[in-house]
Amino acid sequence: MKDLFGKALLDYQNGNYTEDLITSTNISDEDELPLPYLFRDFKNMPKLEQKALQLTKGTVLDVGCGSGSHSLYLQKKGIDIKAIDISKGAIHVAKERGVLNTEMLALLDETETFDTILLLMNGTGIFQTLDQVNTYLSHLKNLLNEGGQILIDSSDIKYMYLDDDGGFWQDMNANYYGQLDYFLKYKGEEEMPLKWLYLDFNTLLTACLAVSLKCEMLAEGEHYDYLAKISF
Asked: What predicted TM-score, i.e. pTM, was given to this entire model?
């Protein structure tokens, strides 16, 4: 991978901000992802993210930390937090911004245990495909201390398949409707497409029950998004 996401974060951090990331999926057109948004402070975060950070306690793992905005907020509150990401550029930026404990690491390679695990900005996306959800949830379960919690957000993107009459259209031979191919462009370069998963709450709930985890809805956003808590 070219780590275009990391390159964009580095450019912004180093004062070389000239254009934004361009994202698209196999069911949606290209759209801009403004780089300043990836460096937002608490007051500019969506309400679901704010709620998750307010509920965070104990030792914390920030999965897919990006530029480190969530970690920095919690760190300033005196919370012991570890930030991980698979992007080398993101980890470099998070360190430069002051995150004390960061590591370039995939979630499935994490071995420490925590009281709170954060998966925000569509945290279910990291599961990639529906058939890997149980693998990831089982691993997350192993990373939780007794009494711990996983705070995760996602969206039910069923609305993207509604026709003009309000009917739900989907190819029944296709994959789960929330399983997408995700494309990223930056400064004329294209990243290899990624698998990205949006999970509706009921599907997440069923997957949690299958690995003996509890899942509860904490809040719903304004556009089919939600925040959930997963625990023993």
From this structure: 0.95
